[in-house]
Amino acid sequence: MSVVLVCVAGWSGRAVLTASQNAAPAAPASASAVTFTDEQATRGEQLFVRVCVECHGRKEMTNADFRLKWNTRTAFDLFDRMRLSMPESDPGSLPRSQYLDVTAFIAKINGIAPGSVELPDDEAALRRQVLVLPPG
Fold first, then answer.
1. What is the reported pTM?
2. Which domains does the chain show, CATH number per domain?
3. Which residue, 16, 24, 29, 133, could crosslink 71 as a Cys pair with Cβ 3.0–4.6 Å?
């Protein structure tokens, strides 16, 4: 979910912040397609089965709600969301490489084709890689 804060004058004349959840995130100016390898996605699938499936099924990662929420978001957005909040019992406890592998797996099961370059462990590069999910 994207939240946009809007400043409006309240009845007292003081600025009030309100949130709008309908605004779509802006694509980065230098956006590119997500890159990952089949091997990286396979490692992500193995980790997903071992750690994530306890709370999340594959369908939850590919259903219409997921696709609506994550289509056109960056790889960094998905990676960072998982890194900061998963696994629920111990957020951030996995190595960064494993969060990248799961991000690659989720991209693959949503119809993004693997390539010859792994999803990079570089925040700036991840922020430029956009999840363009093919129609379900």
1. 0.79
2. 28-130 (1.10.760.10)
3. 133
